[in-house]
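Deviations from the work plan: none for this task. Representative record:
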Amino acid sequence: MGTLRLVGESVRKSRRLRKARSLRYPNDRGRNPSPEPRSPISNLNDRENVSQKTEPVRSVKGVRDLLPKEMQLWQRVEEATRAVFSTYNFQEIRTPVLEYTSLFARSVGPDTDIVSKEMFTFEDSDRESLTLRPEATASVIRAYIEHSLYNEGGIHKLFYMGPMFRRERPQKGRFRQFYQIGAEVLGSMEPGTDAEVLEILHVLITERLGIREVNLLLNSVGCSECRPRYVAALRQALEGVKQNLCVDCQRRAESNPLRVLDCKVEADQPLIGKLPRILDYLCEACRLHLDEVKKGLNQRKINYEITPRLVRGLDYYVRTTFEMTSGTLGAQNALAGGGRYDGLVELLGGPRTPGIGFAIGEDRLVLAHQSAATQEAGANLIYIAWLEDNSLAAASDLARELRQSNQRVELVYSPMKMKKSLATANRLNARFAVIIGPDEIETGRYQVKDMASGQQEPVDRTGIGVYLQSRTG
Ligand SMILES: [Zn+2]
Ligand SMILES: [Zn+2]
């Protein structure tokens, strides 16, 4: 419970600080025996009066605005999300962004980076420690317990979307206010539920949003019966090699050996690759569960990759755990992650209830969808580049002819130099550019440039339709 202590410490520290301040500015110095404490806002006003200058206001570091132009894309993603969840009979839940700090310390885990360094935590004026939610599963479970939803019986299939807050180091594509779309299924321990949850992710991400190069990584983290055996084996194996691992791993080898498997340090990888694999330690029930999930995915023709290193270090995670990545996202390629957490409801004070869920990083989802959408818009596009006034008529003739045979064609009417014309073709993601200038008009052979390879060849005017048709299909 290191974090609980940590949070407690910072609370005590800020109390000490306040006490120190009140000692430095004792109330009984002035004529007024107890002046009203000045609000932070009146201080701000003072500062403004002094500088006499109106600085433009700015957003808080690490957060951003989503402008109307971007919102179209976000709305498209969110509409698709609602539509998909609705077909699986999920219902939306909205929980507050503000929670008591203890909720996350208990659920997310005190020695995770999230809780130990990344939360926006502050003391309210009544000295309660509050936190802007860094994720939403804990809040959904809290609401499930607080409103006794379990009394309704049956299975609860819930989804949410909204902002989360983590005080991470600002870097490209990472924001301190970011958005997640998530699902939680409470009350089913069937492997069929796991397979369906993965089907939802698959349908939304690849089918509805057209995101490509998607990989589903799948693993089992065992249960309270078999995992301790694995952790013991891992601990033992680490005993021999930990001095050759990074500092973090040396610490994790003691505190939470499973987290060694998360290490991204390049030099550690060969050693980590040789550590025992959890799949070799699963008990019969866990092995059966994993087999059933795999069967469900195979039956749905959803590809997956068994990834033994995909583990979660917290006790309430059991069995199925997964991650979805997309190669279109570059280094920060994780799109979604989730797993089964049969012990979480109980941990937060509710009745024993199995659960499984996932969270999708909506910011990245939008980014990946955007690149899929532009590529789609540019798919098989033919750009006609004309060079002089007297080739425009030939260009528009060709455009019309190609469009008649259902080709997607872009023809820009303002005169441009060759270089700018090809740059435009590039920007539109055109598959081919057809170049028509005086030479081409004279010979009756137009240059056709493959925009991806950069290769270019002359093609007879009369054969261009067939030539492009055969290559753009
Ligand atoms: Zn087990
Ligand atoms: Zn390491």
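The longest helix spans residues 2-24.
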